[in-house]
Amino acid sequence: MTTRDSPAGGAASSDPPRGDRPGLALKIGIAGAIGLGAIVSGLLISRSGRRLVREAWQGRRRTRLEDRVLDALWGDPHVGRRNFDVQEIDAGVVVLTGVVRSRREKNRALRLVRALDNVHRVDDRVTIERLPERERRLAPLRRRFRSAHEDENGDAD
User: Fold this and answer.
1) What three-state secondary structure class fits 62?
2) Domain boundaries, the chain
3) Which of 92, 96, 126, 139 could form a disulfide with 120 if both were Cys (CB 3.0 to 4.6 A apart)?
4) Beta strands across the sheet bearing 83-90
């Protein structure tokens, strides 16, 4: 690198002039795009992230209680994969809608919601849709496989 005389005629500077840094803005832009991509992909990969994006896209704003109810349901290993919706119609009164596969799942969902602080009443509009016979026969095998896979990878809660 060549040195140039300083404007005051003193010692030479070893710092490159600002115009000699091509690509710095490009590098910052690429890093920003990678960071944004990581955030977006994280939202789209997780089930709750996809629901959050869908609700934001639709302009739906939830109350704190509605958020807590959905967090409790989505975080549960037994009913977290079911499609629920909740609406707070009055202070502490929520309407729970969704589709589950068994009475056990329905009862579990209702227990989870009723156990939350500030939930005084739950209007139950959850329906039960049984799996077709073939799916019912395969469900225990899938659970066993999933459990063995979680144990193997140390992912179990």
Assistant:
1) coil
2) 22-61, 62-153
3) 92
4) 83-90, 93-100, 121-128
